[in-house]
Amino acid sequence: MIDAFKQQAKDFWTEITERVDWPAKDKVWASTWTVVLTAAAAGFFLWAADWFLGKGFSFLFPRT
């Protein structure tokens, strides 16, 4: 059982260090900024849609 665990750990380390093609640092940063800006744009869009719909419905259905 322990030998199987050691072999699995060794195989894992070999996979991580030799077989995985890690992206370059500049590609990771570019992808990170793409995700951050896309999330910010989506958040702004949802906030604006909520605000406009809220104003529109409060105009159509005023509270008495």
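The record above closes out task 2.4. Task 2.5 opens with a second protein, given below.
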Amino acid sequence: MNLQLERRRFLQGALATGAGAVAMPTILADQAGAAGGADDTILLTITLAGGNDGLNTLGPFEDGTYRGARGALAQNVGNAHSAADGLWWHPSLRRLATRFRRGEVAVVQGVGDPLKDRSHFSNLARWQTGLPDGRISGTGWLGRWLDEASLGQFGGVAIGGRGVPLHLRGASSSVTDLPFNGNGLYGSDRSAARDQLMFRAIERMGRPSSDRSLWTNRVGELTSFAVETARGVAPAYAQGFPEDRFLHSMVLSARLLNLNLGTRVLNVWQSGYDTHDSQIGGSSGVGEHADLLSNLDIGIDSFFSTLSPSIADRVVVLIYSEFGRRVEANGSRGTDHGTSNHVFFVGRRVRGGLYGDRPPLTRLDDRGDLRVTTDFRSVYATAVDSWLGGNSSSVLGRQYGTIDLFHSASRTVEGDLASRARRIRERRTENRNDRLSLLSR
């Protein structure tokens, strides 16, 4: 019987029930200490499910070919944010554009699968598997990294209670799926006297005894482990959350990292990017895509502002989608499934800027899509080798080229203080602009 698998299943069932605020239990503290050190890097992946329109996220908004292909869907530069090399950030990405100007956002251009599959299901499966030649397996690229890293219970975490995504699944590693709503985590609330008696009894059951059968000892250990673990995670749920599910998940991710449980990789979903229609206009007036990007922008900012300063330098966010959209707008004020796209890395140790070859709008592939100029597995190789400190050739099944995207951990105190002062000035300017915008409505 696989005790690690039993623990994971029992723990996931217990975590699906709620919240409270208590000190970290001994078992959890031991796991966190064994899981890694204070300098270990952390990767948060954000899956933009549905196929994000990369051309309108960061695109050549002044380019005549772009404007001719997009028609009414084309973004105007009047309220967009200048990036570099003729590219502009979508108006909804003001905060991300500010981070880009600070040198904290790396944009890898033309990323995709050379197979050019437009299916959500098979393409996402290949992206999350990360194996050569389009092979799909039951394990994912980060799951295989977790197998080699041999971390504790919280080494890998999926946020949202929708199951562990393929890219976090390994052959032997343990990944915990934390629920979106944490009210009433099993064992965290001991306000009632009868509950105190019950949980004390459960904790005693966790101590093996020769007077009990092997099965009874096993059940007692698992139950006690679940109670203690739930109590340890409860502080992440103790305060209020934004109503939006994605923003909620981003804040929860940061709070979980602040608990220092040894988490190295975690994933958050943002759904809704399959914008075949109402990409602009619609019930919101600005369109579905603008609303999604606005939430993404706020979510990234909320995540980093919630993180403890002692952790922030160790965290990088990787943002990807299973494919981009077609260059030409369709007849429903939207865009259809395409191919290559941008992948974004966000963090204080990111070497900001544009990377990779931008697919030319005047030389599309044989189906009229943007050409793939960077294999998505090169992006993964970069994350595994250069950020997580793993071996990408064993994780991905072969060697892929990497990109020099990250600064080393050694930074001068003067440089760090200057960076913080600049962020404070920018935040004050952003807050002032927000107030002026509200007053003008």
